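Hi D.,

Good news: the full-assembly prediction came through. Inputs first.
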Amino acid sequence: MKRAAGSVSPTGLLFAAIGGAGLALPFVTFRENRIVLGEGVAAWAAVPPGAAAFCIAAILGGLIIGLATDRPWPRFGGSLVGLAGLLALLSASAEALLADALDLARVAPGAGVWMLLLALTLLMADALSALKPGPSARAAILVVLLGALAAVLASGLLADISTMQEYRARAASFRAETIRHLWLAFGSLGAAALIGFPLGILCHRRASLRAATLPTLSLLQTIPSLAMFGIMIPILGWVGATVPGARSLGIAGIGFAPAFVALLLYSLLPVVSNTVAGLDAVPRAAQEAARGMGMTVAQRLRTVELPLALPVMLAGIRIVLVQNIGLAVIAGLIGGGGYGTFVFQGLNQTATDLILLGALPTVLLAIVAGVVMDILVDATRKIPEESA
Amino acid sequence: MTSWPGLVLRGVILALVVALVTVPEAFRPVFAPVAPTPQQAIYTRTSILSLAMSHLALVAIACAAATIVAVTLAIAVSRPGGAAFRPLSRTIANVGQTFPPVAVLALAVPALGFGSGPTLVALFLYGLLPVFENAMTAFATLPKTTLDAARGMGLTRAQRLWQVELPLALPVILTGVRLSVVISLGTATIGSTVAASTLGEVIIAGLLTNNTAFVLQGGLIVGLFAVLIYDAFVLLEVWLARRTGRATTR
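Then the structure:
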């Protein structure tokens, strides 16, 4: 159903409504120090009227361009214009509010900023999904957007925002915890792949092994993550204390090892069950053809079955990676490090900025991992979806 | 599926979890070997029963609200008038589920303060997406011939929705609800880090005092709850799917 040019996009109306509400809400909050409750400051209140009007015009302009139907490129451009206006206004508001305040004063994004950010990113997502980019185009868009984000963070435009102040106060430990978090998420994924792929191939061949393995692994998934991390502490403490050489490998009751093993156990089910499902879905005709060509079992597995099963297996890796990045936060509670350290420190001190310093990178990392894995799954798909 | 050993096993697990919740003292000898002292084998600061009840209540309220809202949205999006929202909804359902549950919980605290409130909201928000995604799939994959037949019988739009579409979509929707409930049961334990009263309190007390007995006690009860509820949903889905003649989706 093609609408006449000039009519209004229903999704655009929704984004404009969210954005309009966002402009009415407090734009930023100003606090005397990092713990006290803040007071809301409106979008136009902090900066000189001319600058405020310019930025608000950019935000509104972006949302209005978003009202167009069947024009994905201008709508994408509109979201960028709006985001630029939002960034400029946030940066200017923070600078103006802190200019004549005491050293300990903080400016944090308020409900208004978050609502506008939501409206504009939804607009961007809606425009991009209408463009239906292929895998390589999506990868290019992702790289450009991440590059823009890195440039904004490096430019110091947001340097006056409270979470960035929190970051500067602990830049070294932030780097260390980032590496820790990545090690937890990717290391346990690697270990799960090393164990899970062979186990999945064996389960595909032997029905009895499959009947025993898959229910056991799904039972592991029902254990609440908090308990799983907790149970690993005494088990690995015991291993570290009794098995010779384990301690020198860094295996101990608290810290990295229990978090790593807990994540590994959660990772096994998606890896194994997707390997089995992927191999099960290899078309019978392809297997027969490979056998007819005189391939050995090992050759068939390596050159025919695994390549055809790859997209489904990668979909399993996607589940694991996104899940691990999120669950690794809980490691912060048992001294395992990672972004959870900041989240739980922040919760203990009721310091919102510190919670955000841990939570925002986690969310970003999870989203990027999800998008990258989706691209890989699409790029490795060899047989058209409908015949798979 | 409903064989005798299966029924007996379910009965035993149910009896075990009821006993763990109502008479925790009886399990002192079981947990004593992993407790620092035999006196500290059982969590006594708050009654386990009240923690379990408020844990289940939080999950039930959040998931019920999430199901109602998500199914309503999915119905709206699957009508002809909602077509413009379909690609967007798919993106939101896909990207939204990559938000880590812990991060959703942590982000709810600054907005809502400590206690059961942020936990309820986080569980609700996180519970929306699996139900929404499954409900969208369910409405999009209804057999076309059946829908045409319903229209041919002269059913109105509302009648078609209530008498044909919803009953047929129900098994797939329930799969989404099951995912939501199992995730919520686990996430609610983490809610105790922001002072919600759930069974996570027992686990966290164990973590803080190096008492494995508490960790096991809390973890065991939540784990058994999850297994039982998961199983009940699967049985319900299979029964409904058989009744409506749809192939099971596990």
